[in-house]
Design goal:
- The chain is globular, with a radius of gyration of 23 Å.
- It contains 12 helices and 15 strands.
- With 362 residues, the protein is of the alpha/beta class.
- Among the domains are: 75 residues, D-Maltodextrin-Binding Protein, domain 2; 85 residues, 2-Layer Sandwich (Alpha-Beta Plaits), CATH 3.30.70.260.
- Strand 1, helix 4 and strand 2 form a beta-alpha-beta unit.
- Helix content is 40%, strand content 26%.
- Strands 1, 2, 3, 4, 5 and 11 form a 6-stranded mixed sheet that branches.
Length: 362
């Protein structure tokens, strides 16, 4: 039988290890400060945040991790450490769909860490505007939900915007019914974002038949409104319940168990290739026969996997559409570069919205 180590001995060991960890963390922070000074000396005056570099570091941590912590847990810890080190120079300013407590804000923290300066704005348009005008260095916008599909407002903004996609992040979405009341019978109206209402349609029909559902700008805004009226409820995350002092009347009320939302990071950077990247493009063919074949052919010719394709009205001519396409690989990769060059000759418009690292932390 293995001898039991006295609790006092284990606590002494933990204290000694904590002291070593603290010293190493600060040593890493000092090194990060030196990196910043070197970049300034070399004339680099923009953002010190490099999405490609951070993705490579986090992947390396996951590969090196021996356990018993999971690889994702180790990556989360280093994500926060990197965020804090970067903030020693100047915290990143990142726009998100507010107010506080939205899933978009969760996506900001998951991707950038909690040391960023998160800036709440009212609409997806405002996120693009904040980054476009330089108010924020980056923005995080929802682009796709596993249950309800694409977020059209986000895709439509890219038709006219010159911003780049710099990264992606996925959030497992749990929807909850929140309110000041104690019973479902007291609910007269339910507020939430239109996507969340759609994700909970079956649950609402069964449990709150006939109750009016009102779409608002965000789940957190729904929670704020519910906090002002004892007859109104909201569908939102548990963070919103804490922020706005609401009771949890129903947990995990989404209709699909694996409900996940994909968010993208927008900015002006063009991340370098990391070996595990995505490229998103916007393509317009005009109203012509065989248009889709002309789009897909080059990717098949060069063995490129297409992850997603979505069409939207071009807003330029009647019945003319643009296609948003996600492919595996980076625009600097030889096969991707050759496919895009061939595609350029087959279409009316080709706009590369960004090549960026695939999400590292699941």
């Amino acid at each position: 039988m293995t001898d039991i180590i006295p609790l006092s001995t284990l606590r002494d060991q933990i204290d000694a290890i904590d002291q070593q960890i603290l010293a190493l963390i600060n040593q890493r922070a000092q090194c990060a400060q030196e990196v910043a000074r070197t970049k300034l000396a070399e004339g680099e005056t923009g953002s010190f945040y490099r999405p490609d570099r951070e993705a490579l570091v986090l992947r390396r941590i996951k590969e090196l991790n021996p356990g018993p912590l999971t690889a994702d847990t180790a990556a989360h810890l280093f994500r926060e450490l990197m965020s804090a080190c970067l903030a020693l120079e100047k915290p990143l300013e990142v726009a998100f769909l507010g107010p506080a407590g939205t899933f978009t804000q969760q996506a900001v923290f998951k991707h950038f860490g909690h040391a960023v300066q998160d800036i709440p704005v009212a609409t997806i348009y405002d996120i693009f505007h904040a980054v476009d005008t330089g108010q924020c260095q980056f923005g995080v916008v929802p682009v796709e939900n596993s249950t309800e599909g694409v977020i059209a407002h986000t895709l439509d903004r890219f038709i006219d915007s010159n911003l780049q996609i710099c990264g992606e992040v996925e959030i497992r979405v749990h929807q909850n019914l929140l309110g000041k009341m104690e019973s479902l019978a007291d609910i007269k109206e339910v507020y939430s974002h239109q996507q969340s209402l759609a994700q909970c349609r079956q649950w609402l029909n069964i449990n709150l038949p006939g109750v009016n559902c009102v779409a608002v700008s965000s789940n957190a805004e729904a929670a704020r409104l519910a906090s002002l009226d004892n007859s109104k409820a909201a569908i939102a995350g548990l963070i919103a319940a804490e922020l706005y002092g609401l009771n949890v009347l129903g947990n995990n009320i989404e209709d699909e168990a694996n409900n996940t939302t994909r968010f993208i990071v927008i900015g002006r950077q063009q991340p370098a290739s990391t070996g595990a990247d995505k490229t998103t493009i916007l393509v317009s063919t005009g109203n012509q026969a065989g248009a889709l074949y002309k789009i897909l052919g080059p990717f098949a010719d060069f063995g490129i996997s297409m992850a997603h394709i979505e069409s939207r009205p071009s807003r330029q001519a009647l019945w003319e559409y643009v296609f948003f396409i996600d492919i595996d690989g980076h625009r600097e990769d030889d096969n991707v570069a050759q496919a895009l060059a061939l595609l350029q000759n087959n279409v009316k418009l080709l706009k590369i919205l960004g090549s960026y690292p695939k999400a590292v932390i699941t």
